Amino acid sequence: MKYGYFPGCSLKGTGRAYEESLLPVLRHLGVELVELEDWNCCGATAYMAVDEGKACALAARNLALAERGGFQQLMAPCSACYLVLNKTQHYLDESPAMRRKVEGALGTVSLKLSRQTPVRHPLDVLLHDVGVEAIRQKVTRPLSGLRVAPYYGCQVVRPYATFDDQANPTSMDQLLKALGAEVVDWPLKTKCCGGSLTGTLPVAGLRLAYLLLKEAKKRGADAIATVCPLCQFNLDAYHDKIAARWEPVRLPTVYFTQLMGLAFGMPAHTLGLQRGFVPLELPAPTAA
Amino acid sequence: MANGNGNNRTSPERRPRIGFYVCHCGVNIAGTVDCAEVARYVGTLPGVVLSRDYKYMCSDPGQELIQKDIAEYKLERVVVASCSPLLHEHTFRTAVEKGGLNPFFFHMVNIREHNSWVHTDRAEATAKARDLARAAIERVARHKPLETKRVPIKPVTLIVGGGIAGIHAALTLANAGKQVILVEREPTIGGHMAKFDKTFPTLDCAACILTPKMSAVGAHPNIRLLTYSEVVKVDGFVGNYKVTIRRKPRYIDEEKCVGCQDCISACVFKQPKFTDEFNEGLGKRKPVYIPFPQATPQVVAIDSNVCLNFRNGPDGSRVVSDKCKKTCVEACGDRNAIDFTQKERFEEIEVGTIIVATGFQAFDAKRLPAYGYGRYPNVFTALEVERMVNASGPTGGHVVLRDGKTEPKTVGIIHCVGSRDKKTNRWCSRVCCMYSMKLAHLIKEHTHAEVYNFYIDIRTPGKGYEEFYNQLLDEGVHFVRGRVGEVTDWAITPEEEGKLVIRVEDTLAGVVRRIPVDMVVLATGLEPRSDAQEVRRLFNMSCGSEGFFLERHPKLAPVSTFNDGVYIAGACQGPKDIPDTVAQAGAAAAEALSLIDKGYVEQEPNTAFVLEDECSGCKSCIPLCPYSAIQFDDARGKAVINEALCKGCGTCVGSCPSGSIVQNLFDDEEIFSEIEGVLAYE
Amino acid sequence: MNKEWQPRLVAFFCNWCTYTAADLAGVSRLKYAPNVRVIRVMCSGRVDPQFILDALAKGADGVLVGGCHPGDCHYVEGNYKMLRRYHLLKRMLKDMGIEEQRVRLEWISAAEGHKVRQVVNEMTEQLRALGPLGLPQKFEEWDREVERLAADVHAREAADAAAACAGRTSAEEVTHA
Amino acid sequence: MPKPKVAFYWCASCGGCEETVVDLAEDILGVVEKVDIVLWPVAMDFKYKDVEAMEDGSIFATLINGAIRTSEQEHLAQLLRRKSRYLIAYGACAQMGGIPALANQFPREQVLRFNYEEAPSVDNPSKTRPQTVVEDNGRRPRLPAFRNVVRTLDQVVDVDYFIPGCPPTPNLTKAAFDALLSGNLPPKGSVIAPDVALCHECPRKASKPTDVAFTQFTRPHLTLADPGKCFLAQGLVCMGPATRSGCQAACINGNMPCTGCFGPTSRVRDHGAKMLSSLSANVAARDEQGIRQILDGIPDPVGTFYRYGMARSILRRRVDLGVNGNGH
Amino acid sequence: MKEIQRTIKYEADRVPGFGREVMSVPGCEKLKDCIQCGTCSGVCPLSIYMDHSPRQVMALVREDFKREVLSSCTIWLCASCYACTVECPQQIRITDIMYELKQRAIQEGFYPKRFPIPVLAQEFNRMVHDHGRISEGRLVTKLFLKTKPLEAAGMAGLGMRLMKTGRFSLKQENIRDRGDLARIMEAMDAPASGGNGKD
Ligand SMILES: Cc1cc2nc3c(=O)[nH]c(=O)nc-3n(C[C@H](O)[C@H](O)[C@H](O)COP(=O)(O)OP(=O)(O)OC[C@H]3O[C@@H](n4cnc5c(N)ncnc54)[C@H](O)[C@@H]3O)c2cc1C
Ligand SMILES: Cc1cc2nc3c(=O)[nH]c(=O)nc-3n(C[C@H](O)[C@H](O)[C@H](O)COP(=O)(O)OP(=O)(O)OC[C@H]3O[C@@H](n4cnc5c(N)ncnc54)[C@H](O)[C@@H]3O)c2cc1C
Ligand code: SF4
Ligand code: SF4
Ligand code: SF4
Ligand code: SF4
Ligand code: SF4
Ligand code: SF4
Ligand code: SF4
Ligand code: SF4
């Protein structure tokens, strides 16, 4: 299995640990990722607020690069990138005028968009291409006793529910169970973490993060597992501020790929676990 | 010019005298089409001796005008350009006939539904009307005199579905002395209404008004009740349908069972333990059961899926295992009504008319995960609550939480669940506002709880309905205008702990609210039954885009279908409440009655016939007829069409390679002349 | 007509589904292109390929056949028969130089008034893009070579009567280059 | 009383029709006795001038065979029309265009190029083509112009009767003569042959099932036909059901399916369309793919259904070919 | 005491055509169908901070209250979580409409100057435009300096800790073919097929 890999800006910055865990885990499962050559920022949601056309072209350049690179599929681990690339494809399909314009613009640098390159999220690939069973078989150190609250965030299943249910996704739940973890069922799986507002409007952004952490803790979670660098950062970085405003709700937030790595027996530091502010503590392995 | 194939028959020897009328339909047509111009133009066409425009052709003076003109102008053919022939062809044929002409010396041009209503440009619409009229003039000149056939009607009516609609229609017909066969899929009739405790807006007890009707059906000498049965095949046509019915084995001889229920008490299962469908899964029943005390017929049924006396056969079906002690049989004793050897049976019946009253199904609340049905135990559907408030229901009339004992102190009723939502069903289900208020009232009465109703709009367009709404306001029920965003067990504030929280924008107050409640009731909407498409095919009906059966005309023929002799009534035609259902059922019965009393139906004489001398006997047409109307006459080596069987589809006509089949009203030359007519432009 | 060219679409609609759908479009006041002329038949199975050819030959730019969805035919399966004819007819028409989009078979149920609108609009636009088929004009044009000869023969006979072949070529005679 | 004058003429044809006239053998003698043949290029030497000199309407009957493709054929058709009381289209080509009309699928340029340059048997390095006018030692002989469209006779001149067949059978020919000479004539424009399709007189008729549902089609050169069984029942396209009888099922008796040379019955406007309609309606499959697969067994619908009738058909000719010459 | 304000709207307060304009943008057409059910506000995680709820914004747009809409903080609070879009019973793409309104607000200079969200959007774009990629550290720093110079100091602690865990850097990331990117963006600016190519 070979996929083009679009890391996006975050996985090179604040979300480094995501990449650091994703790559070895996928390699371990026989999935080959080839980084898209000279990719650019996906445009993210911020760009759309200023110029939808340019946002579209920006994302489309990446799709065109994938096509040039001969990739049949493109993997985008960051929720925002995943959404924006998918959205661009929808938009180009729906609006022939936009497609003409974007194709024209790409044409000026001899890039073209002649086919659909499906954009896939790692969760999707792991669940549907690799399969839970294959993952279960690789588990050497089951996460028994670890209670994890799966947190999908808003943009992986919304608005394009391509691989999981919009209101109650379960793909990560299945995965975590395969790793031996105990899954905490909670109704906040897809609630917004406030990430895009913590920096700009902390009253609103931080409160959302606070409520999430508080509820996870209340339901007995030892950790929150996330699929998005923004969410991870947001739930991990502001514990002090949250404590100052409301109450301390310290709880580690890790990438699901980090948990996979641990369950596969990879050492924590090779998975970027040292980068989190709130360290993850694993329960002692049970005798069984 | 001859066509080189020796065909000299393209044009009639002499043009008959044609009269043409173009209808204004008030402004419906005249608003878009220049009717005077159409009349003027058609007046110039060969053979047209009279051309008029008139305000309302279908009105009495309009029809009389035609009759008068036929006499005065010696008209031999008549063309009317007005609305769809499906609407008024019959009207005008009758007028032409009254005027002394053969009714088929008439043709109708649709310039309303196909023209004035769908186009805006006056010049274009007028040109189109001219083209269509010209084609009709060409065509009508070639019309031949025809006679309508009369087919006798079997005076028996099949009614499919024994909800309130089917029950009412059956009784209406039976009381008029007509034979009725009522087929119901479940072990008892009653439909949804049998599940309710009270009915809005008068809050009369459902059982009190329904039970007498059910027993009347069971006892009526003119009604044959076939429960636990389904229609599997329908052949024939209006007046003469042959229907095959599958009778599922209930393992009880209906003739012998007296409904004593001794078997139920004696069953080896001491406690009821299997899901009780009638109680929406809230209660339990035994393998031998009767759905509810007033079930009709008063006959038990054995559920072979759970009865110990059955096991899985090699093909997955259930076969008798004879493993159970059969205490039920013992209890039944001499009555000897239990019969484990019963097999599925097929029965063929002959009927003249059919009323389909298969009702609706409630929207599956699981399809909207945001409302948590199936996830949070204390989210209920309305039907569950209907059962709970029913004194003979699973909780004995107590409204309680899923734990079976706690009474709720606050209840939120969410309207429009699955309705008015493009992601699920886009229509308004019409009864949920009213039944939500009914439930609000009943819950309050039973528990004194605070009740919140969450609605998009309150729709109370019925007699006494708005008054009922007012009554509820007076009772202090909360009405929050806003479609609920979500139901969650996520508590943010202390008073939310342990409750279900409804998050909603109170659009009237202009604030987002979180309202903690003990119980949520989902007012699930009405939708077509999941097998509606199969039923539709069975009876050759159409479905609207939502999937409810399509009536012939929403205003003028609301219970007729496009298949003559097949009528629809009740919620299978669209969401409706009991008063409307009963009104429709009465209307459907009246339609069937009027056919039966007339004694015959007139059939369009659009049948096909083989030109005897010209058929080569190539047999190409024979397999094409869906009704096996074409037979091969071995002695003469020719094909012959049995006119009584031919329904006039014309498939054989279009396929006879030597052009030796003619279809009345749709003859080749008639259609060729129409083609030429619509295309011959200046 | 000195107006700009408008495509002409002849449609054969079955009585039970598509004709009714077109009525429904009317009742729903959906607006669509006025270029279509509907001819009612009882069943799409009645639509003889001759009708389609004849319509094209008489000046239609395209022909639409509308029937009930498979499985829904009022006459059980007349629509299947049309579907089969359609497949072979399309191949034949292609070989005769008629563009694919000019003849179309659509299943439109009685409830699909919007589909009538959509299909008629779509086809009208496709025909507009294709331009006129203009078979009557083509036939006339083809036959003009014969008429020209008739006139020419007439003239030549008159001349021949006067003199023997004088090496004069008629305007009609073109080289076979 | 002078014997009626009769003329035979051939246009775009293979000569087969002339052959039938000869085949009348002893009967021809009887005919010759009763008539004066004034023009018969294939058998006797007459000059056009002689014909031109005749009085209009002085020929009793002229039988023209062959389709019309050149200006000369048109000219003669018009001439003979004027001179004759009865003008009879003789044979499939005159009636419906016949085999020559299959050329209506191709642009004239392609026909000429192939015949004068590309055909494997042609050796023409200078690519010379016939010219309507050539300079030759001061003489300027003329050749007829080659038309864009192959026509039936009645698309050029008014025709009184049609005698179908490729070629017409001696029986039919004789019957036609008898009718003409006895004055016992059908209405003008008639096809002189029974107006019932061939199955009627086909010896295999009884073997045709009443529930034919085609699951596949094959072609005569791909299979060994059962000589006793209806061809359609064997999946071989037989045009018999759509084609006039009168041929005494000659092809069928030679174990070849009917290819339709007698043309359609009077009730049909387009021979090919009608056969196509009947045949495809009886295909067994119900899904698009199955239908397509079965019908693909008829690889050349135009050649199959319009073998003789292209010029007569509703479309007459491939419609996207240019008129003036080269098409594309 | 609370200040008393007149809240009546006169016809002159409307900008006729504004609603139609917004609804003509692809993706925003369905706004016409809003039945004011409030689901969007009901599910919106941020509606509780908004001056006009998403539902109200729909109504205001449809009725041409341009000023009220474009100066509303709602559009800047929208976190693009798509909850409303997914739940709206009329399938209105509320999130896309919010984007459209943000663009218009920026184009028409309607947003509060120091309100950080539009500034972030613009800074973000500038960086992408110039470098092809975002360097999160630089972006955030810039943002704080621009909007809340006083708080920037307070954030320094977080920055330091991020730096410690290797997640913060002030290095500017760049793509190789920056020229290409510029050319693409230029082409998108060209008015060729009607403005921003949305028609
Ligand atoms: C929660 C709720 C509360 C309501 N409360 C009220 C109220 O208070 N007042 C009021 O006026 N209306 C009320 N209604 C509406 C009312 O239920 C309907 O108007 C009424 O039931 C329609 O009757 P019906 O006979 O058309 O359909 P149904 O009641 O659905 O009956 C159809 C019958 O046909 C049978 N059937 C279905 N398919 C087949 C088949 N293929 N073959 C044989 N049999 C078949 C079914 O088993 C059933 O018995 C309420 C509806 C709901 C959902
Ligand atoms: C403004 C308006 C617009 C409407 N538009 C629509 C619409 O678009 N679609 C729709 O479905 N419905 C519409 N309706 C409703 C529609 O008008 C009624 O549903 C319908 O007319 C009812 O028909 P009816 O025969 O019961 O009563 P009516 O139309 O009122 O007919 C009753 C008849 O009885 C006669 N009559 C009364 N008393 C006596 C007596 N004592 N003796 C003898 N004769 C008597 C009257 O003169 C009258 O002719 C509309 C109603 C209104 C007011
Ligand atoms: S005939 Fe038809 S078109 Fe004319 S007035 Fe009556 S309904 Fe209207
Ligand atoms: S089966 Fe026998 S015991 Fe059971 S109810 Fe009927 S009669 Fe009574
Ligand atoms: S009746 Fe009321 S609750 Fe039901 S769908 Fe209609 S508006 Fe909604
Ligand atoms: S018209 Fe239709 S129903 Fe009648 S004989 Fe022909 S195929 Fe059968
Ligand atoms: S298809 Fe025509 S010719 Fe053949 S048997 Fe049927 S009617 Fe006779
Ligand atoms: S189809 Fe052909 S072979 Fe069969 S009976 Fe007819 S003519 Fe004879
Ligand atoms: S959810 Fe949709 S329909 Fe409801 S108020 Fe919001 S935008 Fe309008
Ligand atoms: S997309 Fe914006 S408006 Fe919609 S729910 Fe999310 S934050 Fe609210």
List the helices and strands and how they pair.
The complex is a heteropentamer of chains A (288), B (682), C (177), D (328) and E (199).
Chain A: E1 2-5, H1 16-28, E2 32-35, H2 44-48, H3 52-68, E3 74-75, H4 79-94, H5 96-107, E4 119-120, H6 122-130, H7 132-138, E5 147-151, H8 171-178, E6 182-183, H9 195-198, H10 202-218, E7 223-226, H11 229-237, H12 239-245, E8 253-255, H13 256-263
Parallel strand pairs in A: 1-2, 1-3, 3-4, 5-6, 5-7, 7-8
Helix pairs in contact in A: 1-13, 3-4, 3-5, 4-5, 6-7, 6-8
Chain B: E1 18-23, H1 35-43, E2 48-54, H2 60-73, E3 77-82, H3 85-98, E4 106-110, H4 112-116, H5 122-140, E5 149-152, E6 156-160, H6 164-175, E7 179-183, E8 198-199, E9 204-205, H7 206-219, E10 223-226, E11 229-237, E12 240-247, H8 262-266, E13 274-275, E14 284-285, E15 288-289, E16 301-302, E17 310-312, E18 318-320, H9 327-332, E19 345-351, E20 353-356, E21 360-362, E22 379-381, H10 382-389, E23 410-417, H11 432-447, E24 450-455, H12 465-474, E25 478-481, E26 486-488, E27 500-506, E28 511-517, E29 519-524, E30 526-528, H13 532-538, E31 566-568, H14 578-598, E32 600-603, E33 608-610, E34 630-633, E35 638-641, H15 651-655, E36 661-663, H16 668-679
Parallel strand pairs in B: 1-2, 1-3, 3-4, 6-7, 6-20, 7-10, 20-31, 22-29, 23-24, 23-29, 24-25
Antiparallel strand pairs in B: 5-32, 8-9, 11-12, 12-19, 13-14, 15-16, 17-18, 21-30, 26-27, 27-28, 33-36, 34-35
Helix pairs in contact in B: 1-5, 2-3, 5-16, 6-7, 6-14, 10-11, 11-12
Chain E: H1 18-23, H2 39-43, H3 54-62, H4 66-70, H5 74-77, H6 83-87, H7 94-107, H8 116-131, H9 136-147, H10 149-164, H11 178-189
Helix pairs in contact in E: 8-9, 9-10
The complex binds flavin-adenine dinucleotide (2 copies) and iron/sulfur cluster (SF4) (8 copies).
One iron/sulfur cluster (SF4) binds next to strand 23 and helix 11 of chain B.
